Amino acid sequence: MRSAANNPFNPGFGDADVWVERPEQLGVIHSMVDRAVTGAKQAPRLIEQERGYGKTTLLAAVEDYVHDWAPGAIVVRVAAVDGEPFTALFVSRLVAALRHASAAAELVGAVTDALSRIRQVRLAGVLDVALDDGGVDQPASIALLDALGRLGEAARADGDRPVVLLLDEAHVIDPQSLRAVFTALQEVINRPDGSGRVLPFAVLLAGLPGLRSRFKQHRVTFGERCRDLELDRLDDEAIRDALLRFERFNEQGVRFAPDAIERLIEECDGHPHVFQLLGEGAWDATPDADVITVADVEAGLASSRRERSRIAAARLSGLTEAQLAWLAAAAELDDDERTLTAICRGYRGNPKATAADCGSLGSALLTAGVIRPSPDSRRIRFALRGMREHLRT
Ligand SMILES: Nc1ncnc2c1ncn2[C@@H]1O[C@H](COP(=O)(O)OP(=O)(O)O)[C@@H](O)[C@H]1O
Ligand SMILES: [Mg+2]
How far is the CA of 173 from the centre of ligand 2 (A)? Predict the structure, then answer.
């Protein structure tokens, strides 16, 4: 029996039980961990993407996979919290990860001792370490650099263990911490050890669009040294693979009918959050059947309408009046007639207008990822399927 209680879909949680593979991203991160072990220099990676595309879920998956890739890995996954000092959070997670990794007592001691010299951290009551240096406060970046350096060296000495830092919600890190943490990180990830290798760090950051420019705004050059890691829509083929083997994700023996899979692929259009919403609704639609049908997916569409509309609306917030009016004109057109020229004619109310009459409106929205080119590049699609519906209401 399928019921709401045993529904394996979980929209809104940054950890997907029904997991659609992200082989490209995991491949990149796997080689980052390998490079950390061998001590090859490498840039940190940065994921800048809207909500709902699976940043948190990817980091959670990495945390699981890392121990297969490198059994001794020390993993620190931490999400910044708006309005809270990130340095303190980062330090407490660092110490917890060390303890969890059953690192040697001297290692934990050396690192916590270095960290205890940060006033901000001590005030927050994160550490319960006795101060043996007369209580001298150090600038956070220097104490952090010291601690991270010791951690890296000890991890290297203890059988080349990689240190994997996964920093989520990085767009809400407070300016003070942004400077302290990333000045220290920038320095330590380039620091050679005795044998000329760099310390074994692999650093991955995730946050909303604008993250990179925030670094710049606060005069931290870290962002400029990061490489992008693209995280966009789920691959249709990967969704198909996941749903064809759906039995793996539930204990009730529930399967998807092939045409239901195709319908779900079409309707979620690669959006991870919408994928979970539709899956959840489809599962709940017919409790006593062990095959999920097209009708179930349609029921999922109906039951998730409001939430999908909210997701689409959130994606449009912050756009200018002109951009919204241009998008509204685009929404009036069918998929096969939505060219830049046709949109501009609708927007200008002039059947003779050309795409150039709308200036850079279209390209700005393309860059912002609100619209995408169609596979043949001739027409425009909305990044989210629900966006058209939303713009027409
Ligand atoms: N690879 C994936 N496979 C299946 N569902 C996913 C995947 N990535 C994300 N999701 C789902 O999408 C939703 C949003 O994911 P989340 O990681 O919270 O996004 P973000 O952190 O980018 O806002 C969640 O419900 C999550 O379960
Ligand atoms: Mg997230």
Answer: 14
Taking the CA of residue 20 as reference, the ligand 1 atom at the shortest distance is 3
- Mean pLDDT, residues 238-264 taken together: 97
What is the Cα 256 distance to its own chain's centre? 28
pLDDT of residue 99: 76
Q: What is the distance in A from the centroid of ligand 1 to the CA of 274? A: 9
The model's pTM: 0.90
H helices of the chain, in order, are 23-38, 55-69, 86-100, 105-115, 119-123, 140-157, 175-188, 211-217, 222-225, 236-244, 258-268, 272-285, 294-303, 305-316, 321-331, 340-348, 361-367, 385-392
Measure the CA angle with vertex 86, ends 230 and 47; round to 5°.
Answer: 0
Q: How far is CA 51 from CA 207, 312, 369, 389, in A?
A: 9, 11, 12, 20
Confidence of residue 120 (pLDDT cuts 50, 70, 90): low
Pairing of strands 45-48, 227-228: parallel
Question: For residue 57, how far is its CA from the centre of ligand 1 (angstroms)?
Answer: 5
Amino acid code (one letter) for 190: N
Mutate to test the pocket of ligand 1, among 240, 273, 310, 311 (most ligand atoms within 8 A of CB): 273
* Ligand found nearest the CA of 233: 1
Closest CA to 90 of 200, 187, 203: 203
Residue 323 reports pLDDT greater than 50: yes
In the chain, what are the domains? 23-228 (3.40.50.300), 235-303 (1.10.8.60), 319-392 (1.10.10)
